Amino acid sequence: MTHSPELAPEPRRHRGGAGSAARGQWVRYPWRIVNDADTYAPADTNVYGKVAALSARGVSTAGVERLATYLGTSVSTVERGLRRLGRPAPTDGVRELYTHRRSHPGTGTGRTAERWCRTPARGEAYVWGPVLAADTLRPVLHRLYLALRYQVHVRGHQPTLAELAGLLRHHSGKSKGQALAEAAVSRLLDELTDLGWISLDKGAGYRGRHAVTVHDDPVHPATEPPVTPDPGDGSGPDLGDGSLAYKEDQELNDARNTPPGGPFRRRRDDRKWVGEPVDNAVSVASVAATFRPAVRPSARSAYAGPPLTLSPRVWAVLAPVRDLLPAVQIFQVRRIAREIGRQLDAGIWPEDIRDQLQTLRGWTDTIRDPGAWILHAALPVAPGPCGTTDCYRGYQRHTGTPCKACTELREARRRAAHPPHPHPRPTATA
Question: How confident is the model over 89-96, as a mean pLDDT?
Answer without folding.
Answer: 86
